[in-house]
Specification:
Blueprint (H helix, E strand, L loop, with lengths): L2 H6 L13 E5 L8 H12 L3 E6 L9 E4 L2 E5 L8 H6 L8 H14 L3 E5 L4 H11 L3 E5 L3 H10 L7 H4 L2 H11 L5 E4 L2 H9 L7 E3 L22 E6 L8 H13 L4 E6 L5 H10 L7 E5 L3 H9 L3 E4 L13 H8 L4 E4 L2 H10 L2 E4 L4 H9 L4 H17 L3 H23 L2
Parallel strand pairs: 1-2, 1-5, 2-4, 5-6, 6-7, 7-8, 9-10, 9-12, 10-11, 12-13, 13-14
Antiparallel strand pairs: 3-4
Helix pairs in contact: 2-17, 4-5, 6-8, 10-15, 13-16
Length: about 425
Amino acid sequence: MSATMAAGEARQAGATGTRGLRVVYLRDDDYPWDVRVEKICRALTDAGHEVHIAARNREGRVPLRETLAEGVVHRMAPLPMAPRVVDRATSFPAFFNPRWIAHLDAVVREANADAIIVRDLPLAPTAIGVGGRRGVPVLLDMAENYPAMTRETWDAGRHRPLDFLLRNPKLVAAVERWVVPRLDAVLTVVEESAARVRALGAGGDRVHVVSNTPPRSHAQGIRPARSEDGTLELVYLGLLEIPRGVGDLLDAVALLRGRGVKARATIIGDGRDAELFRARARTLGLGEDAARFTGYVRRDEALHVVARADVGVVPHHASALWNSTIPNKLFDYMAAGLPVVTSSAIPAARIVRETGAGEVFAARDATSLVAAVERLSSPDARATRGEAGRRAVLDRYNWERDGATLLDAVAATVARSRAGAGR
């Protein structure tokens, strides 16, 4: 089921707030697609608001203006007569880029916007500047701890020459310190992130947790039959990057098989370090029967693959990034009724422990990961933990609740802005 259907269910969440607002969502990449952007925009649209999505256009998509269920997409117009490579380079999402400033300003004016929601940090100063000139409040959708994310890229040695200027961790952190106190509201994905934002100067009543949760319907389906060949299927869903701990998962599978456990990791997704992990699997002697790389798979298909596994793994390193954010995959596993094995990254470990949804291992420690998997060796143990996670999604960690928080946050932000402006 796509995020469009998921976000549509937010209509039933009982959220309150002003009706008929005009909201511009600023997306720093092409659209479609992004699961969080679609959920947020669809929740607003289904609540009776008018949504406009200002997006990049690296792929040269047409039409430049397209009406989708979640809102009207306004794609950046290409530079006249410019080669595609030049057009892409000059549309890089930097806050000082005049193309982005002009693009957002045009969409805000055309929509007569009541609010701007900007996705993550790179274009937040752009939104603050345009919003300030137009008298429009700005909400930051902080899906990531962006300074920590850039730091991880550098620490893993995966940064590029241009990153010294555009994604330098010290510069990014300085931009965030400037941005946060100037925002009208911040949407974070987990309590740990909310605490960090408050410490940066955001007022407590302006920080709202809107997490990466699925709709309740994802936890109401019948689980498909498992493999009958005795293989213990471990699944990972997400980007393939060193800080996400995929290498630790591969090491753990090798250790398990060395102990006579017929284990296999199904790794769903792609990313900048995919070839490194494939090479690691070959070095460990893990063939297709032990490490299966699917590459990119559409989200609805990926969730079907997840549902057929035995254990969902969140192997992320316990770093500043993963100690202040939460991955979609955790809730996807729980909704599918899979027991979860997560690293000690604080938010994921907290939720797994609170709900009884699985086991926690010491991050970056393949031996500890193996021990956590072995604690779920019996089908009964897996069924008990999986059902606990599924119930937690039905009761608490669902988009119906988070969609309601989103609607209230936008309505409160607009009302506060209007009161301050005397409107």
